[in-house]
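Appendix B. Chain record.
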Amino acid sequence: MKVVTYYRVSTAAQGRSGLGMEAQREAVARYCEVNGCKVLAEYEEVESGKRSDRPELAKALHHAKVTGATILVAKMDRLARNAAFLLTLRDSGAKFVAADMPEACHLTVGILALVAEQEREAISARTKAALKAAKAQGTRLGNPNGAKALRRAGKGNQAALKAIKSAADAHAADLLPVVEDLRAKGYHSLRQLASALNERDFRTPRAGAWYPTSVRNLLARVGA
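Structure tokens predicted for this chain:
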């Protein structure tokens, strides 16, 4: 499993906490040894757990996103102590795990998210009930021509292509800082950049390997 580690302590608690940076590192190291983790990068932060504007965590999330890695922390409260931030983290699509509670990514966050999801589920249930009632009354639902109408209008393919382009643009924008950093370190040719991206486990939009041509396409997309 590829992981990006994130360590956090608050200035007030750092001196007296039983889980300072070194203790966190030990807990993470044990987890990695047992689970065979490959650590791609490490991020440290001294910040209050009640705040969500943490630059190092943002960097860790970005690194995990572009490499397909999992955020690894020593304890669940290293990420946050409030449900709102955990919901934001969950909705971001980031994968994460706590060394002291490996099931937290599936159990704890799910529990915290129940309240937020309750209203959405209620709305969905009411919508389904209304559609069912309308159908029972003989109302014809949906487009009677189905996909044919979309094909005639050319909307189906346009929407799909737009979604693909949007996803590729977003992925390219995420990788632009990485490419700029590699260039600053002396990687200039397409072949050098492709090799460096592969060595660091960064992924293409389709989660494949990098080649000079795919790097060229990436640079063209972001105008770099």
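Further analysis of this model is presented in Appendix C.
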